Each structure stands twice: as structure tokens, then as C-alpha cells.
Amino acid sequence: MDNKRFDEIKKSLEEDLKDGLDLKVLEDLRVKYLGKKGFITELNSEIKNVPNEEKKEFGMKVNELRNRFNDFYESVKEKLDQEALNKRLEKEAIDISLPATVVPVGAPHILEKVIEEVEEVFLSMGYDVVDGPEIEEDKYNFEMLNIPKGHPARDAQDTFYIEGEEILLRSQTSPVQVRTMLKGEGKVPIRMICPGKTYRRDDDDASHSHQFMQIEGLLVDKNISLSDLKGTMDVLFKRLFGKDVETRFRPSYYQFTEPSVEVDITCVNCHGKGCNVCKHTGWVTVVGAGVVHPNVLRMSGYDPEVWSGFAFGFGAERLAMMKYDINDIRTFYNADLREAKVFDREDEE
Ligand code: DAH
After folding, report:
1. CATH fold label, 110-348
2. Ligand 1 pocket test: which of 155, 172, 211, 255 has the largest number of ligand atoms within 8 Å of its C-beta?
């Protein structure tokens, strides 16, 4: 081994160890110098052929070369690895400065809220909340409410018939009165309200909808009179609209009550002073009601000589429209989310 070979290799190494290498070239260099047939490996195996007195120095020189190569290799490798990692992180990074997608938050439907409020009032007075079928029999929707076939009062309800003259979409929640009494089997007291969907062949406009919600109420016990109804209506509307709200009865006519009344409340909009909403009367009609007709009691198994009751029914939309100042009933049934924003008023309460 002559020093010439050593110098050649040293020179080659100095030329090879330069900036700007990529991982592949670096690996080639490692093989070139430290591989099985690598230059430094070659020098290493030459040590044994070097005369003894030069061995130590030659060994140190070879070591020095190896250390240089190793230091270079380690530092470049670390740098390249770090660069590759940075590149990957950059590509996969989540940009936390991007504005987040706004997830729309829903709110309870106003109709549902109003119904729940009504339910709370009646539950606190010992009423049950009951359910009835939307597909109803003529018998319950009309006949047992004292509206026989051919009675003109049926026309006013413009019913959707499903099968012949017997099966229909209920046009009112009043059939649930009958169902409740039949289930009650003559036992008292009956105290129930029934909120639910009802249907009529109305053309939809700002104040009509072919589908709407009614809330029915029925109380049957001993010695029930109109004044009990009056007290109950008073409690309901004061709880819903405030203590200043007053109720009044006007005579009316329903086949299933006798006497029958319409319940007016002082206009919530103008507090009774008179405005467009109440047509300048200071009052708005909100409920149909009365003392349960003896025929209705009898047909459902309650002896009218012994028991009496009151019943009432009202539209939930009407209340909700008054409470939330909505002037088009179609708003409740419109699936347009932008319009449904009107329901999003949690924070105003
Ligand atoms: N069902 C009636 C309607 O749809 C409302 C009504 C009136 C219900 C008087 C009653 C009642 O229970 O006693 O117009």
C-alpha cells in the first residue's frame, strides 16, 4: 500500500463530500466508501500490510477519513430526513386559520313549543294529554258528536274522505272526546286535552291551511257548568299571554255542545285598544267551546242526568301566530330553512 492510493482516496472523498446531495446519492457514497468493496474498507484491510512502524499513523489516518465520512453522512442524512418530513407535514397540514364551516343549529318548531306550553298549563290542573288517530271513522268525527249523516254542519268542515263515506282524515280533534269517554266506561272525572293534526279541504292562503293543529279539551264530572269553563280559559290565556289578558264568552253554536260559546281574549297586539289584528274591536276569537251536549254524553256511555262536562277546541297555529307575531299560517308548513329562521327565537324569551 503506498501513500499514493491513500491520497487518491482522500482526494476523491474531499471532492465527493459537497453540498446539495440527495438521499440517493448519499447512499451511493456510503456504498462507495464504506461498502464491502468501499474505499475506506479497502484502506482498512491494507493496515495489516503496512510496516509496523507506520501502522499506527496509517491507522489513525484511515480512522480520520472514516470519521470525516461518517460525520458528513450523519449530518447530511439528518438534514435530508428533516426536509422530507417538513415537506410531508406541509402537504398534510390542517390550516387552522381557515374560518370554520358554520353548522346551523336547530330550534324547536314554534307550533311544538306553543303546544307544550298549553300542555304544561293543563297538566298542572290535573289533565291528561291523550292522542287519537288522524285517520278516523265518520262515526267518531261526526255521528257520535251529534252530527248525523246529511247534517248541514258537515259541509262547513269540507272533509277529506278516504274510503267511501266511512273513513276520513279527521276534520277536528273532537272525535277524541268520544274515544276518551268510551274508554272511560262511565268513570269520572275525565280531564284530557288532545293536541293533534286535523285536515280540511281548504285552499291554502295566509289564514287557511289544509292541514292544521287543533287542541281539544274535555272535562266530565258532577255539576260542571259554563263558569268552570270560564275559569279554565282564564287560567290558560293568562298563563300563555300574561296576567292582563281577559277572556269573554259570546254565544255560538256547535252540535256537540249546549250552550255553545266562542271564547275571545283581549287582543295581544294592542292590549284591547283596537288595531288591525282585532279589526279594531280589541278582542280576538280563539276558542270554540261549550257544555257537552246530553246526546254526546249519552252516546258515549255517560248519563247526562248524573254527569256534565265542558269541551273546547282551538287552533294551535292561531295562538302561535299571535304569540310570535306571524301573519301567514303557511310559514309553519314551509320547508324553506330560510323562512324557518323565524322559529329560531329561543334567545328572545
Ligand atoms: N271542533 C270545533 C271546530 O273544529 C271546535 C270546538 C268547538 C271543539 C266546541 C269543541 C267544542 O270541543 O266544544 O271548529
Report:
1. BirA Bifunctional Protein; domain 2 (3.30.930)
2. 172
